[in-house]
Design a protein that fits this description.
Layout: E1 2-3, E2 7-10, H1 24-42, E3 47-48, E4 51-52, E5 55-62, E6 71-81, E7 85-94, E8 97-107, E9 109-110, H2 120-126
Antiparallel strand pairs: 1-6, 2-6, 3-4, 4-9, 5-8, 6-7, 7-8
């Protein structure tokens, strides 16, 4: 399993609900930001004119809330590089406390929306 630098994200007021807690869907936005941060660092684009890596499955357990002003840390791990897909594991933390954790799968698709094999140049970087 390949692990990457931690992505840090401060919780904005607009991300919270009336209880002052980050809405669950925003947590997944933070995770997607972290995924793009990792991929950009590897020079593997999440989306280009010829295709990209949309999510096809997400599994997330919410453990502890994040609130306005909190500094979240998102750790990404690449669990599997398949012929057409990537399986990621993520952990969202506030200091040592786990806020959320889970997995998601992305599939490489062409600009026509059809799944294709991950380009060999990307595969070489990711494996």
């Amino acid at each position: 399993m390949k692990e990457f630098p931690i992505y840090k994200r401060r919780v904005q007021f607009a991300d919270t609900d009336l209880a002052g807690i980050v809405h669950f869907s925003k947590i997944l936005c933070y995770v997607e930001e972290a995924e793009h941060f990792v991929m950009q660092g590897l020079s593997v684009p999440a989306m280009v004119a010829s295709g990209g890596f949309p999510k096809v499955h997400v599994d997330c357990d919410y453990r502890s809330p994040l609130r306005f002003g909190d500094d979240a840390e998102i750790q990404m791990q690449l669990e599997k590089v398949g012929e057409r897909s990537l399986t990621w594991k993520f952990t969202v933390r506030l200091a040592e406390l786990i806020s959320a954790e889970g997995t998601f799968v992305t599939v490489y698709v062409s600009k026509t929306g059809k799944s294709e094999e991950i380009p060999s140049s990307y595969r070489a970087i990711l494996t």
